[in-house]
Amino acid sequence: MSQRDPYQGAYFTPSGGLVWHWRALWRRRYWTDFIDAVAVELARWQPPQRKLLLLGPSAGWCLPSDFLIRFESIHAIDLDPLAERIFRFNHGRVLQRMDVKLTFELENIFTSFDALIDRFHDHAILFPNMLGQHIYHVADTDTARLEIEAVKTKLAHRHWASIHDRLSGKIRSGRPLPSPLRINEAIKPDRLAETLGLTGEWVDHLTTHVLPEESERRIVGWRLLDDWMHIVEIGNVSPS
Ligand SMILES: C[S@@+](CC[C@H](N)C(=O)[O-])C[C@H]1O[C@@H](n2cnc3c(N)ncnc32)[C@H](O)[C@@H]1O
User: Fold this and answer.
1) pTM over 0.85
2) CATH number, domain with residue 79
């Protein structure tokens, strides 16, 4: 497992922090298709637990309050010291009104992942767009890939879901996003790019094997910036 992350508690990180909050504040109004797709997939996920462990939620800019209020309590963990305050700004009032207890922890989830999932053994688990960011926190590609891929084995007896980047790269301003897909297999990066009609260079976020091989998943495009697109995979898993 990774050592202590140098970005823990930092205001500027490659996967979140101030730049992400600033971007979300200004660009969220252009992200409605992506946010709606996330909401639809989260509505389809119906774990039996009333407690949620939210791993790397930032301020929940793309998470619907309607999903969060389905739980009695939520424990969130993020590296970003601003995440809690802004998350409470975004969702706090509705959570309070619906009597949902929210607690936050400043930590790298991979520092002691096994102990963490044991500590929250009675929670459903959501990775809300953080596993694809692991490549920015672990310099060695093989280590990053192994840690990402080990998640499904460690969570084999749990209800969990993940929203994660698969690919990212430049897109011409104004070019329409590829049509969303629903598939039942882990699709390799080259084939995914080809299926979506993408040409040029794409960052591989090493998340091909986050979900079990034959899990159903939704693939959607997200125009993060006017000329920068992420291809995001969303899926959920029940205990095997
Ligand atoms: C792209 S943001 C998530 C955005 C979120 N879905 C939203 O709606 O605002 C990724 C978040 O994951 C957090 N993160 C990345 N790696 C992490 C790790 N190993 N442990 C804890 N948090 C992590 C980052 O700090 C960042 O806040």
Assistant:
1) yes
2) 3.40.50
